């Protein structure tokens, strides 16, 4: 149907889903991923609304349902850990929640024979011409592609190279935090617990492994400056933020320092006037991250990937028309999700916008 060559940067949800749809439509797709292999980290992701239609179109909905965490809800507690309320399961788990590593493995298995995956490499330069995009890599030989798609997350390399510095696109929502797993000292059973304080929040849940729980420690920040700092500085910022906190905070801080799956990030959104420039476009968090507090990241990645693939198929080779149609179709949905992200950040002690 087409001999169009496409380079996708990022082998996550958006990249793999988009690659599958493009391959189905006859595109020759290469995926470059800076990680040395398939990412096995991440806790739980949830699906809402039209994302189920995308999973069904991918042919993996039933398999995904088989990994449902079956969360029963979240208990709200005060500063001493006493129960003060309950939140229904769908608040954090959406309509369906699965461990992220399971989703990643399923998508990779679906696409590993369809796409040319290149791990442990990264794009270093993009030079657009009338007939293609010349790409240089950190390790691999230079190549030319008809189209380049950034599906490489909040700090997208493609966005930085083609659209400008991160500061132009990122909008910090006033909170940062760390995630890690720890011993299930709270005895959680397919359930979560949430404690919010002045500028801090503790959230923990346990599902697949009864002996372990996933922990999120959040605190108010003025900028995402810590995201790219050494782990020691990130940990110290968390210890400072939770200094004097009661309940299980001291135990969680100790568990944090011992965790081998520690992950730090800030709640930020990506706002761009356009999601494409020439032959380069963005999908998922790279183009329009709504922040984790929106609870829509995975669904938005799937829906965005399908929307872009459908727009390219309908445009019959006219990438400019396709990118315009893709954005017109998806932007209202993204705008709604970004409002949810701002509201969620405010609820967790951030500024919200």
TrEMBL record:
Residues 4-317 form the FAD-binding domain. GO terms for molecular function: FAD binding; monooxygenase activity. It comes from the Bacteria. Keywords: Monooxygenase, Oxidoreductase. The keyword Oxidoreductase applies. Coiled coil: none annotated. It holds the Pfam family FAD_binding_3. This is FAD-dependent monooxygenase.
């Amino acid at each position: 149907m087409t001999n169009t060559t496409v380079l996708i940067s990022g082998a996550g949800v958006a990249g793999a889903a988009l690659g599958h749809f493009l391959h189905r439509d006859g595109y020759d797709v290469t995926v470059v991923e800076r990680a040395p292999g398939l990412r096995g980290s991440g806790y739980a992701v949830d699906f809402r609304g039209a994302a189920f239609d995308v999973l069904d179109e991918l042919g993996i909905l039933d398999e995904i349902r088989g990994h449902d965490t079956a969360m029963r809800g979240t208990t709200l507690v005060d500063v001493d850990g006493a129960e003060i309320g309950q939140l229904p399961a769908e608040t954090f788990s959406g309509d369906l929640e699965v461990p992220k590593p399971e989703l990643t493995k399923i998508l990779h298995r679906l696409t590993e024979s369809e796409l040319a995956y290149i791990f442990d490499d990264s794009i270093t330069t993009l030079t657009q011409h009338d007939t293609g995009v010349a790409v240089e890599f950190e390790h691999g030989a230079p190549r030319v592609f008809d189209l380049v798609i950034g599906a490489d997350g909040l700090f997208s390399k493609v966005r930085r190279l083609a659209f400008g510095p991160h500061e132009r696109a990122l909008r910090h929502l006033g909170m940062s935090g760390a995630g890690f797993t720890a011993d299930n000292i709270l005895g959680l059973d397919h359930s979560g617990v949430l404690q919010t304080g002045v500028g801090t929040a503790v959230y923990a849940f346990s599902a697949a492994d009864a002996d372990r729980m996933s922990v999120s420690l959040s605190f108010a920040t003025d900028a995402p400056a810590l995201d790219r700092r050494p782990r020691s500085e990130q940990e110290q910022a968390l210890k400072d933020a939770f200094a004097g906190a009661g309940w299980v905070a001291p135990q969680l801080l100790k568990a944090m320092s011992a965790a081998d799956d520690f992950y730090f990030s800030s709640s930020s959104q990506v706002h761009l006037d356009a999601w494409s420039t020439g032959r380069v476009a963005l999908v998922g968090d790279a183009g329009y991250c709504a922040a984790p507090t929106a609870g829509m990241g995975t669904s938005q990645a799937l829906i965005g990937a399908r929307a872009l693939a459908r727009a390219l198929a309908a445009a019959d080779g006219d990438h400019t028309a396709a990118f315009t149609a893709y954005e017109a179709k998806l932007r209202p949905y993204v705008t709604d999700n970004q409002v949810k992200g701002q509201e969620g950040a405010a609820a967790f002690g951030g500024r919200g916008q």
